[in-house]
Write a structure and sequence with these properties.
3 helices, about 0% strand, mainly alpha
């Protein structure tokens, strides 16, 4: 039985060494603030608003208010 107990400390040391080499993942907040450019969205809203204004100018009775 003494032959079986000898590999156990070496096996434990091997497993501990393998576990110590596992990669570590860290999630950190960015140093600089995140900026979002909203100029594109603003431009789209202006274009849609102009198209709607043109639609109302072409069809003044679109909602049947004149009847």
């Amino acid at each position: 039985m003494s032959n079986l107990s000898a590999p156990i400390p070496w096996l434990a040391a091997l497993l501990l060494g393998v576990a110590a080499c596992t990669p570590k993942i860290q999630v950190e907040a960015p140093v600089e603030p995140i900026t979002i450019n909203l100029n594109i969205r603003h431009e789209v809203i202006i274009r849609v608003e102009r198209d709607v204004d043109d639609l109302f100018a072409e069809n003044e009775d679109i909602f049947g208010e004149g009847e």
